[in-house]
Amino acid sequence: MPLEFPSPHEIDRLIGSYAYRDSRHPQSASTHNIVTNWFAARYGAGSCIDEQPFATGDHGDIQNARQNHIVSRAFSGKTLLVGEGNFSFTASLVFGHHVIPMSITSTIHENSRDISDDAKINARKLSRAGVTVFDNVDATHLDRTSHFQKFDTIIFQFPNAGSREPNRGHNPNHVLVRRFLRSAAEHLLQDGEIIVTVINSSYYDGRFRMDEAAEYAGLKNLYAISFFPGDFPSYSHVNTNDEDSALKEHQSFETWVLQP
Ligand SMILES: C[S@@+](CC[C@H](N)C(=O)[O-])C[C@H]1O[C@@H](n2cnc3c(N)ncnc32)[C@H](O)[C@@H]1O
Questions:
Q1: Where does the record place the 25S rRNA (uridine-N(3))-methyltransferase BMT5-like domain (predicted)?
Q2: What is the 85 CA–ligand 1 centroid distance (Å)?
Q3: Confidence category of residue 150, pLDDT binned at 50, 70, 90
Q4: Ligand 1 within 6 A of 83 CB?
Q5: How remote is the CA of residue 239 from the centroid of ligand 1, in Å?
Q6: Ligand 1 neighbourhood includes 140 CB (under 6 angstroms)
């Protein structure tokens, strides 16, 4: 008797299960097989997770997708992206690195009526592939979005408050990041991680003051790794207001990894 093809809902449930997330679980291998085969059947053999080719970065290095910290985190559980702008980073994870769409929730702060055509196209493509897409999500108040449960990884690429006005004497970007970290910390599953990518310069370090923000949010473990935009080929960074494009104007970026 042929096996019934699992529904997207069933695959989503499996991805969230302990059997999928804990490699020591007795059904870990069979659950991974079901999920991998489902994606291969639905999107073609090329999308089989374990057969992904290498991705080539702008920096000339050939990097296995799984060696990129953000990609490997996105492969290993439920991921929430906030402040996604035009959704192109999420699109790169899903269509470039073949991260499982059902495990991703991708959000923007803006109302979808006010976003660019590119952003609308990306949102539609992601939604059709199985990504959960929301607008009007304030990263500093994730509790206000009632459908948000908890995630293994919460990502904010290049946070920018879009204002230069100090907020109670603090830089607005520092305030944005620390409030985001505090809110995100409340929405992490066990062993969860928060990931924030920023420009690597003393000027930006002074604006974000990541270590202080982490302490404010009660996050203890903090380290930074280099971020290479070329690892995400279709990622076209969105600017805030009229500011210069961080990816075009700067050479060096860092991804902060924060854990409770
Ligand atoms: C420099 S853009 C980066 C956009 C996108 N992450 C990227 O890498 O292309 C900064 C983003 O932060 C978002 N943002 C600012 N305040 C926010 C908040 N309170 N909650 C969620 N996103 C916010 C803006 O809407 C904007 O899209």
A1: 80-238
A2: 6
A3: very high
A4: yes
A5: 9
A6: yes
Decide: 193 in ligand 1 pocket, CB within 6 A.
no
In contact, 108 and 91? CB cutoff 8 Å? no
- Classify 107 in phi/psi space as left (phi over 0), alpha (psi -120 to 50) or beta: beta
For CATH 3.40.50.150, list the domain ranges present in the chain.
55-259
Q: Which fold has domain 55-259?
A: Rossmann fold (3.40.50)
Per-residue pLDDT of 157-176, as tens digits, reads 999 998 877 777 788 999 99
Looking at the CA of residue 239, tell me the nearest atom of ligand 1: 1
Q: Return the higher-pLDDT residue of 51 and 31.
A: 31
How far is the centre of ligand 1, averaged over its atoms, from the C-alpha of 169 (Å)? 22
For residue 246, which atom of ligand 1 is closest to its CA? 1
User: Which position has the token pair 């449960």?
Assistant: 149
**Nearest-atom index, ligand 1, CA of 86:** 9
Query: Each residue of 57-82: pLDDT tens digit?
Result: 333 333 444 468 999 999 889 999 99
Q: How many CB atoms lie within 10 A of CB 162?
A: 12
CA atoms within 13 A on the CB side of 114: 7
